[in-house]
Design brief:
The chain is built from six helices and 13 strands. It is of the alpha+beta class and about 325 residues long. The strands form four sheets. It has a four-stranded antiparallel β-sheet, with no helix packed on it. The structure holds FE2/S2 (inorganic) cluster (FES).
Length: about 325
């Protein structure tokens, strides 16, 4: 059965998966009864099974026609529309309209519902999660709390959230995590590695990158710098009063860190490929003693961030 002729969409709204019906069995019991009847029909011999199937389709067609009329009329009336949207949040009504293809589950709504269902458990772990967006089958989720991003506990949280979403929302096949929300911080420019007052010299390999006040807080900013004939892939990370730059290559397999997860609270940066965790301020690897990101010298001059790209060749800066 399809709902192509009159689909509805609903706004994201968290709510319980099931609630007892006001006058009868709850939705789980009703669904179990349907399943049991379908199982018994499937065991009938062919003519009986076909007759039962024809009866089911005929009854459903009558119900659907009535429901479509109800929904159309309610949508056309301002006051009734409000009631209609409230009704759609009732699990029984929602299931009925979905069964008849009258509303289509939209991935953002379904993902938000999954997160709402997980929230009590997340809070027990000292964490919370919110949906940022769902695009092209990828749910972008912000996960706050639950320990340093590189800790085992945080990895369990991320795994659990991803599995719950991917299992419950067919349109989502992957979950990405947005950076945690950094606390708003005033940055005194003098606190940033200001270095010498004179403008850095391009001849010494310094490259002007971007205005200091445009470097986003608590995120990785990837960029490609050209110094002379050299091109260097770089990431810039700003945490509160400090800006650092590294060669854009993880110490593990040299893979790029554009999508690395920065935890502004813990000051860590986690590689998206296999989870190596770094101190975002020093580049030191916290998961693998002795490993580190390759830092590049940074200066702020004239309100701009300069990076000495040639230091990527092995110069200490
Ligand atoms: S490439 Fe970064 S952890 Fe493997």
């Amino acid at each position: 059965m399809t709902g192509e002729d009159d689909p509805m969409t609903t706004t994201p709204q968290a709510g319980p998966a099931t609630t007892p019906g006001p006058t009868g069995p709850d939705i789980t019991e009703l669904a179990a009864r349907v399943d049991e009847a379908a199982r018994r029909v499937a065991e009938l011999d062919e003519p009986a099974r076909r007759a039962a199937e024809e009866l089911r389709q005929a009854v459903e067609a009558v119900h659907r026609a009535g429901l479509v009329t109800i929904v159309r009329r309610m949508r056309a009336d301002d006051r009734a529309r409000e009631l209609l949207f409230a009704l759609v949040d009732e699990p029984e009504v929602r299931m009925l309209l979905m069964l008849h293809g009258i509303i289509r589950p939209d991935p953002a709504t379904e993902t938000a519902r999954v997160l709402a269902g997980l929230r009590p458990w997340l809070r027990e772990q000292g964490a919370d999660a919110e949906l940022v967006a769902v695009e092209d089958g990828v749910a972008r989720v912000r996960l706050d709390g639950g320990g340093p991003a590189c800790s085992g506990a945080a990895a369990v949280l991320r795994d659990t959230v991803e599995r719950a979403i991917v299992d419950a929302v067919p349109a989502v096949h992957r979950v990405e995590y947005a950076p945690t929300r950094p606390a708003a911080t005033f940055i005194p420019l003098t606190a940033i590695r200001a270095g010498r007052p004179d403008a850095p010299s391009a001849a010494e390999g310094w490259v002007r990158t971007m205005p200091v006040d445009q470097v986003p807080q608590g995120e990785v900013t990837p960029m490609r710098l050209t110094a002379g004939e050299k091109e260097v892939e770089v990431i810039v990370v700003r945490l509160a009063d400090r800006i650092t730059a590294y060669v854009n290559a993880c110490a593990h397999q040299g893979l790029p860190l554009d999508a690395a997860l920065v935890d502004a609270e813990d000051g860590t940066l986690t590689c998206p490929w296999h989870g190596l965790c770094y101190d975002a301020r020093s580049g030191e690897c916290l998961s693998l003693p002795g490993a580190a990101l390759r830092p590049l010298p940074v200066r702020v001059a004239g309100g701009e961030v300069w990076i000495r790209a040639t230091a990527a060749e092995g110069e200490a800066g």
